[in-house]
Each structure stands twice: as structure tokens, then as C-alpha cells.
Design brief:
single chain; 535 residues; alpha+beta; 6-stranded antiparallel β-barrel; 5-stranded mixed beta sheet; 13 helices
């Protein structure tokens, strides 16, 4: 009798698993969530921009030196990532080897001048904001774009993917891309060649892929390989409880995300704006006159959208995309909500000189990062008070472009250094609750940021000083009031902070001071401090 070989992978009994028969359940299709993620894989990001090839990049991994990336010329000579550096140099002795430092943020360097690969990945994530407001770096060599509801603007998902890959090639980057309903699925497909998955088909498409595509820890992939599990489908066929006990919950989370059962969020490099206005340019612009002309279009367009929604902006950013892939930003904040294009144009006027067009800007966008409700007021009915407030707000906004603008407001704290705080000029700050033990005694008209030490002479340990020495000058005390004891705030301060006894002193020359004794009376560690001038 001729035996038939089953095409399905064997079901393995992992350590700790009870060998009870498991009924086969029908395959369930995960319902699509409607979310669409575009993943990009840049396989040669480390070597791109390092100069002429052939070259390879290597990094130390423990006691070994491993090749982490090769350029096309080195790949044609038979080199590949994962090889030992000695093996690669034996195969192709003429290939230039570049060290990737072990710290992830530094990236590969040549003569100290090559920008880090991680920094370039962040720049490309900003560059990708022209396609969708939600983009994120996918370290070490990928990008993630949430294109939900945005693909139709480029003619569909296939057209958008082709355009992004072509634009990256124009910037000097080789890229592969994939679109799916989960970022893990899309990233795995991008690493093995790319493609576009229909919603709800992630589980079927991910099955034939090797485990390395999921970017699991190398030791996990090696352990699964020793068990004969080398593809995602083979791992999915195993009991989930046994896999979790042996390899941890991380493997289960990755498998759920890869099959579309879950769709983990991405961390966008910039928050999505509340309102925006964008202008794509057929030819890159380089002159200030052209930039002003684009701003004259964008500002009224954005303000009209704010007006229709009954909103005003408090924080706005101009994002200028250069033709070489760079992105420059100019941020502005306003003291009160506004949607006046003339006022915003005046605020941008001096800041636009900071832009460096280089080869030119091919896209400019205005983004309202923070907005507030703003009631419309009919002209002529605002009243003199509202007009004066509006004029003051505009004046402070213009001053804020040149120097810091703030005001002091009370803070809920009885410790003198914390009793006041800096706030925006028009910020609403609730008044602190009244003290239980009655009104607070008079405070200095000028409070020092930190108390300064002084020398004091007191007749008794718990008496006010009769003479002090401050800034090299001696002062006899004519009159003293106190003490006012202020204890540290135990929920904020360290246990070593000492209680203070404050006195209001009047010197013989008329100077009135606010001084304190830090520590218990008679203690050898007691110190006297000057904290401010009274009126």
C-alpha cells in the first residue's frame, strides 16, 4: 500500500502541553476594520549616502563582527547581510567596510560627516507627511503611513504606492512597499517583496512568509526553527497556550497583529492637525516673493475652514517641503484664538526669512495644531472693551515673535518659591483656595528666586535678629514682626528640607526686608536667609 504524504506541517507537542486530541475548528476570517496601513522597507538605508561602492556596513554583535547592510555592487560580488565580516572580506577583499557604531542613534559614519541612518529615517517620515498626516519611522529601516481615507487623493492605493516608491527612488533610496490592514502585516510583506492585500485577507497572505519577516527576536526564530517551524503558517498551526508558555506573550501579540486579529497603533512623528491647508507646486519655488504669494493663498483658505467650524487657532505651523526631501517648519502661537489672515500674515512676515529653500519648495502646508471655539462677532457690535482686548492681543502676539511674553499668576502652594508661576498673557488660572488658618500675611513686593544667606545676630535663639550683615553691609534692626512659621510641603519636598521662621524687619535706614531662619532655634545647623524686599 502506497502511503500518501500530507502537505500540512506536523502538529508538534511542545513541552508542557497535554497530549489530548484537539478538534479541528473551521477557519474564521477576521472581519476587516477599514484601517489601511502602507509600510515601506528601505533595505539599503544604511549604505545609501556613504559614497561610492562597493561597500558594506558592519556592526559588532557580542564577540562577532556581522555585516548588516551591503550596496548593490557588493551584493553582486556575493556579499549579503548576516555574514561574518571576515568571510565577506575573504570573498571580496576590495570592498570598503564601514563600521556602524553600537549606539542606535549615531548611525554609520565616514570621516565623521555621514548623517545617521536613524536621523535620515526621521527626515523621510516628515517628508511622507505630504501623502498622509499620520506617518512614523519603523526602525531600523522602514516607514509606516496610515493612509485610511487618503489613497483616493492619489488615484487609489496602487497609484499611491507606485508614486511613493518612485519619489523615494528620485531621492536616492531603494524601497519596497505593501498595504494591509495591520502595520505588522504590511511591514512583513514589504520586507519580502511588497503587495497590496484586500481587507480581511491578512491571515491567508501572511501564512507562507518566513518567521524572519515578522522581526521576531533572533533567538526566538532559531528556537522555532529547531522545532521544525520556519513559516508563519506552521507556527499558527501550533497550540497558542504552549507557544505562549515557552516563548512569551510577545510572540502571541505579533501573531495576532500579523493575521489582522489586532491592529496596533502607530506613533506618528507629528500629531494630526485639527485643520490644514496645503498647496502642491508644479515647479519648486525659491524666492521670498513666491513664498509670500503661496502664503496669501493658504492663510485665507485655512481661516475660512476655521470660520465654518466656529473655531480659532492658538498654535499654527508652516511646513515647507523641499524638492530634495527635506522639511522645514515654522511654529507660531497666539495669545488668544484668532482666524484673521492679515494678523497671521503679519506674524509670519519676519519668520519666513528663516526658510532655506535650497533647490526649492514643492509643497507648503499650514496646520492648525491647537484650536479653540471662537464666537463670531458682528462688526460694530464688539464694544470698546473687546476692541481694546483684541488690540492688546495682537500687540502681544507681535512682541512674542521677538522676546518671551508671560505674566505671573498665583499657584496653590504655601511655600514661597512656588507661590507664583509663569503663564500665557491671557491664560485663565483659578485662584488658589483660601488658607484654613486665615489670610496670608503681607508678602514682599520683590521676591528672590532663591533665598540668599546672610549673617544675623540674635539675642536669644528664638528671637528675631537685632543686627544683620547683607551684601557686605551691616544693618541695625529698628523693628521686627514675626515669626511666621512655614513648613515644607511633605508631598513634594525631601525629608531633609527644614522648617522656616519668617520675620519682617525694618532697618535704621528704612530698608524693609523679609528674612527667615531655616531650622530649629538653637540648632547648630540653623541658617539665616534673605528672601525679599517689603514695600
Amino acid at each position: 500500500m502506497t502511503g500518501r504524504r500530507c502537505c500540512h506541517p506536523p502538529r508538534l507537542h511542545l513541552p508542557g502541553e497535554h497530549r489530548f486530541p484537539t478538534p479541528r475548528l473551521p477557519t474564521q476570517t477576521v472581519p476587516p476594520t477599514g484601517r489601511r496601513l502602507l509600510a515601506l522597507h528601505l533595505p539599503r538605508l544604511v549604505t545609501e549616502g556613504l559614497g561610492p561602492g562597493p561597500l558594506l556596513a558592519w556592526a559588532p554583535q557580542g564577540a562577532r563582527r556581522i555585516v548588516v547592510a551591503v550596496d548593490p555592487l557588493a551584493e553582486a560580488l556575493g556579499l549579503r547581510p548576516g555574514q561574518a565580516l571576515a568571510e565577506a572580506q575573504a570573498i571580496a577583499p576590495t570592498v570598503r567596510a564601514v563600521l556602524v557604531p553600537p549606539d542606535a542613534g549615531s548611525g554609520p559614519r565616514v570621516n565623521g560627516a555621514t548623517p545617521a541612518a536613524g536621523r535620515r529615517l526621521a527626515e523621510l517620515a516628515l517628508w511622507a507627511l505630504r501623502f498622509t498626516p499620520l506617518t512614523a519611522p519603523d526602525t531600523p529601516d522602514g516607514l509606516l503611513l496610515d493612509i485610511t481615507g487618503a489613497a483616493h487623493l492619489a488615484g487609489g492605493e496602487a497609484a499611491l504606492l507606485a508614486r511613493i516608491i518612485a519619489d523615494l527612488r528620485r531621492l536616492g533610496h531603494e524601497a519596497r512597499g505593501a498595504i494591509a490592514g495591520s502595520p505588522v502585516t504590511a511591514a512583513a510583506l514589504a520586507r519580502v517583496g511588497g503587495g497590496i492585500l484586500a481587507p480581511g485577507t491578512e491571515s491567508a497572505a501572511i501564512g507562507p512568509l518566513p518567521l524572519a519577516a515578522l522581526r521576531l527576536p533572533p533567538e526566538t526564530v532559531a528556537s522555532l526553527g529547531r522545532l521544525g517551524l520556519r513559516t508563519v503558517r506552521e507556527v499558527l498551526a501550533q497550540p497558542r497556550a504552549a507557544l505562549t508558555r515557552r516563548f512569551g506573550a510577545h510572540l502571541a501579540h505579533v501573531l495576532d497583529a500579523a493575521t489582522g486579529a489586532t491592529s496596533p497603533p502607530i506613533r506618528p512623528i507629528r500629531p494630526a492637525p485639527d485643520f490644514s491647508a496645503t498647496q502642491d507646486l508644479l515647479e519648486p519655488i525659491t524666492t521670498r516673493e513666491a513664498i509670500d504669494a503661496v502664503m496669501d493663498r493658504l492663510l485665507p483658505r485655512l481661516c475660512r475652514r476655521l470660520e465654518r467650524a466656529g473655531m480659532g487657532l492658538r498654535e499654527i505651523v508652516l511646513r515647507a517641503h523641499r524638492a530634495d526631501g527635506g522639511v522645514q517648519e515654522i511654529n507660531l502661537g497666539t495669545g488668544a484664538a484668532t482666524r484673521d489672515p492679515a494678523h497671521l500674515a503679519r506674524l509670519f512676515r519676519d519668520r519666513l526669512d528663516r526658510l532655506e529653500p535650497g533647490f526649492g519648495f514643492d509643497r507648503m502646508a499650514l496646520l492648525a495644531l491647537r484650536t479653540e471655539a471662537l464666537e463670531g462677532v458682528q462688526s460694530g457690535f464688539a464694544g470698546a472693551g473687546a476692541e481694546r482686548r483684541d488690540a492688546l492681543t495682537r500687540l502681544l502676539d507681535r512682541l512674542a515673535q521677538r522676546l518671551p511674553v508671560w505674566r505671573l499668576a498665583p499657584r496653590a502652594s504655601h511655600w514661597p518659591e512656588r507661590a507664583m508661576q509663569k503663564v500665557e498673557p491671557f491664560a485663565t488660572v483659578p485662584a488658589p483656595a483660601a488658607a484654613i488658618d486665615g489670610p496670608t500675611p503681607p508678602r514682599p513686593v520683590r521676591l528672590l528666586r532663591r533665598p540668599e544667606p546672610l549673617e544675623a545676630l540674635a539675642l536669644l535663639p528664638d528671637a528675631p535678629p537685632s543686627m544683620i550683615r547683607l551684601y557686605g553691609q551691616r544693618h541695625r534692626i529698628r523693628r521686627a514682626e514675626g515669626p511666621e512659621r512655614i513648613a515644607p510641603e511633605w508631598w513634594r519636598d525631601a525629608p531633609t528640607r527644614r522648617t522656616r521662621d519668617y520675620y519682617r524687619l525694618e532697618c535704621e535706614d528704612g530698608t524693609r526686608l523679609w528674612v527667615c531662619r531655616a531650622g530649629a532655634p538653637g540648632d547648630a545647623a540653623t541658617t539665616w536667609l534673605h528672601h525679599g524686599w517689603l514695600a
